[in-house]
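thought: fold this chain, then report.
action: predict
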Amino acid sequence: MEKKEYVKTYAAVAVNFGSLDTSFIPPKKHEFVDVPLGVSHFLEHLMFESNENQSIAFAKLGAECNAFTSFDRTVYTFSTISNVTECTNLLLDLVQNPKYDIKSIEHEKNSIIQELLMYDNIPNNVLYNECLKSMYKSCNVRYDICGTKESIEAITKKDLDLCYDAFYHPSNTCIVIVGNFDKNELLNSIKKNQDSKSFREFEVIKRRYPEEDNLVNEKKSIINYELSIPKVSLNLKIPNKVTRSIENIKNDLALSMLVDYNFDETSSIYEDLMNKEIINHSYSYESLVDDGFSYFMI
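observation:
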């Protein structure tokens, strides 16, 4: 997307692989395999940690690079005010040339476990995770995207190789670039980059998810946490099937509009709760519609 009025250019390579994807049929195979929780996030860490030269190269080009993992995707990004073509090639090379080994895998386990422990000390994160555990019985959304201490320790190079080969194929990824650049010039550079690499024939990966009913796992959950002001969340579990269709995007936007209209800071509900001093300015809400799950939190 050319935006000539922009100063910065933003780019992302998104892989259709997230924390929910722990059971699938690998390419050229016929039976499902199960991998530990947190593999997608672990792989994201390794792509950066084992490609230090690319990270330094981004900095030399004046660009900031980063990545994140969610329930359904892993995304690698950069932002820059110059050298867009060079940065785009770097991002593609980062995602498409894994360089991790057993030593880097073992080193990264400790880092991710420390990250998990850090999140356990952030009250808002604890509250959010507990809400998901209370709503969902089987869906992997009830687990932290990082996984658990036990699952992280159980991850092997074989698990990572299996997931990378299955999900990091170009046909299972997309690249989005928005900013001030010449579209044709950039597109030609991307084509040249991809033509210089060889990829196996793509197979659509069949995935398997636990069945989830419409009932909540727990009606009420209380956590004893040393806080001066208690945090409370009310949650609505909304039935949703795995469809991998545009309908989920439409429904996500519709739900977002609905809750904005009824619960944002201009709503009568918000005004009433503030006047009665039931809530303070930490008030927030969130809605999401995704494959196999949907919810509203306030």
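thought: worth noting. The mean pLDDT is 94.
final: tokens above.
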